[in-house]
UniProtKB/TrEMBL annotation:
This is Ribose transport system ATP-binding protein. It comes from Martelella radicis. Signal peptide: none annotated. Coiled coil: none annotated. Keywords: ATP-binding, Cell membrane, Membrane, Nucleotide-binding, Repeat, Sugar transport, Translocase, Transport. PANTHER family: CARBOHYDRATE TRANSPORT ATP-BINDING PROTEIN MG119-RELATED (PTHR43790), D-ALLOSE IMPORT ATP-BINDING PROTEIN ALSA-RELATED (PTHR43790:SF3). The keyword Membrane applies. The keyword Plastid does not apply. InterPro entries: AAA+_ATPase (IPR003593), ABC_carbohydrate_import_ATPase (IPR050107), ABC_transporter-like_ATP-bd (IPR003439), ABC_transporter-like_CS (IPR017871), P-loop_NTPase (IPR027417). Belongs to the ABC transporter superfamily. PROSITE patterns: ABC_TRANSPORTER_1, ABC_TRANSPORTER_2. It holds the Pfam family ABC_tran. Residues 19-254, 262-511 form the ABC transporter domain.
């Protein structure tokens, strides 16, 4: 491997260290989440933390932010012992985190969430709503979010704006260290995020950036620490380490990161989905068909109607006008549960796994088998052994480690939660899958497994409609692609026409005519 690779956690003598962790270990019973983790964050530097799902990244983040106490090792903050016992302790020490699974309170206002846990009462012991809203508006303005109403209930905001609020609140509390866990997972664009990071960096804040998107990591980070099986493998200078080098450190062997795409021929017959002139709050009249044996991608910038499109098809929202037909029957279902039983079946992978996907208190195995419990029941009962065995078969399609199946799914990393939900969707028995950002928060190896599973599903006659915030994913997977702009299908591409240049041009409302002009 080429490049300057240092021992994990090593720093140059002229750099100001803000936070150092050495020999950190954490076990949950017989399961060792971290064995020997080391990392050193420098003031004014953006440092990436990379690794597969289950490598220990989430556990290390929880330890650094005070949510979990390590079993061994030590941490230093600006040279002094650092032993936070809660997220509040860490914030008091100017260490703040924007979590992948958002920590916002849904029934409070935007302003209240931004000020938590520092809502100061008045002299009478009461909190002035007017003052809270005013302070919230100031914070939003500082972070370029003036368009968001500080009095709005958090639950009513789209996921992308909730992600921005989570990030803005962390930055407000990060006087020394800012930890960003998959901060772009719900953002279609990174311009706003990177601008906020640059401002924090200019203030001398040490920033830890956790992401599976290497293009982002290279754009904003200068160094990276790689974890594998709970151990720090190396800290590398990103200018001197190739993607292949990094993948090899993450998984222990070379990974084929780019796989040639294969376009499928759709099967004849009635379309699985036929949408005609469907309109709602964001959709302005969308029409398309999805055929058997086809993978249809949806590309769009944020807020172009993709969320409403998927929710209408899943039965979570009703369009104001237009017609949706499933297997040539009017879609008369009004919930994802009903959709699964309608026609040949429609299964939905939701946008936000924490509130729409997982049942946090149940095991991962239970979450996986929920759609097909009747198939594995005996006299109306399902033994844990049978449940785990059935879940293991489904989870194998996305290479989910079987040892996680007995864990409460809420205790797993975001990536492993996504694997469980993807396994559930694929094993539901439905012939049509609605996948909203299916690889959000998963590592490169798991992405390849999910791509292979989607392709195999389509080759066996299944139909897939998927939205992705990552254009290379659409280029690789889709047989056809719809581009939404202004709530309408602005353009569509098929076969060799599907490339990033065409998609980007259409996503901003322009037809890319370069190829046509070159042919004249």
């Amino acid at each position: 491997m080429t490049g300057a690779v240092t021992a994990a956690g090593q720093d140059s003598p002229d750099a100001a260290l803000e936070l150092r962790a050495e020999g950190v270990r954490k076990a949950y019973g017989a399961t060792v989440a971290l064995e020997h983790a080391d990392i050193a964050l420098k003031a004014g530097q953006v440092h990436a933390l990379l690794g597969e799902n289950g490598a220990g990244k989430s556990t290390l983040v929880r330890i650094l932010t005070g949510a979990v106490t390590p079993d061994a090792g030590r941490m230093l903050l600006h040279g002094a012992p650092y032993t936070p016992h809660s997220i509040t302790d860490a914030r008091r020490d100017a260490v703040a985190t924007a979590f992948q699974e958002l920590s916002l309170v849904p029934n409070l206002s935007v302003a209240q969430n931004l000020l938590l846990p520092r809502l100061a009462p008045s002299g009478l012991g009461l909190i002035s709503r007017k003052e809270v809203i005013a302070k919230g508006r100031e914070i939003l303005a500082r972070h370029g979010l003036d368009r968001i109403d500080p009095s709005a209930e958090m639950a009513r905001l789209p996921l992308s704006d909730r992600q921005r609020i989570e990030i803005a609140r962390a930055i407000e509390n990060a006087g020394r260290v800012l930890i960003l866990d998959e901060p772009s997972a719900s953002l279609a664009e990174t311009d706003w995020l990177f601008a906020q990071i640059e401002k924090a960096k200019a203030r001398g804040v040490a920033i830890l950036y956790i992401s599976h998107r290497l293009a982002e990591v290279r754009a904003i980070c200068t160094v990276a620490t790689v974890l594998r099986n709970g151990r720090s493998i190396a800290t590398v200078d990103l200018d001197n380490a190739s993607n292949d080098d990094i993948f090899e450190m993450m998984v222990g062997h070379r990974v084929e990161a780019d796989r040639p795409s294969a376009r499928r021929a759709t099967l004849p017959g009635t379309p699985r989905i036929a949408m005609k002139d469907v309109a709602g709050s964001e959709l302005k009249g969308v029409s398309f068909e999805l055929n058997a044996g086809e993978v249809l991608g949806v590309a769009a910038l944020e807020g172009q109607g993709q969320r409403e499109l998927f929710r209408c098809l899943a039965g979570l929202e009703r369009p104001e006008r237009g017609e949706i037909r499933i297997d040539d029957m009017p879609a008369s279902y009004h919930s994802p549960k009903q959709a699964l039983k309608f026609g040949s079946g429609v299964s939905y992978l939701p946008e936000e796994r924490k509130t729409e996907g997982i049942l946090a208190g149940l095991s991962a195995a239970t979450n996986v088998v929920l759609p097909f419990l009747p198939r594995i029941a005996r006299a109306g009962l399902v033994s844990q052994k049978r449940e785990v065995a059935s879940a293991q078969v489904a989870a194998g399609a996305v290479e989910m480690n079987p040892r996680y199946l007995t864990f409460p799914i809420g205790d797993l990393s975001g990536g492993n939660q996504q694997k469980a939900l993807m396994a559930r969707t694929l094993a539901s028995g439905a012939k049509t899958l609605l996948l909203f950002d299916p690889t959000r928060g998963v590592d490169v190896g798991t992405k390849e497994s999910i791509y292979a599973a989607i392709s195999a599903f389509a080759e066996e006659g299944g139909s897939v409609l998927f939205y992705s915030s990552e254009l290379p994913e659409i280029v690789q997977l889709a047989d056809r692609c719809l581009v939404l702009y202004g709530g309408r299908v602005f353009d569509s591409f098929s076969g060799g026409q599907i490339n990033e240049q065409h998609l980007v041009a259409a996503m901003i409302g322009h037809h890319d005519t370069a190829e046509q002009e070159a042919a004249i």
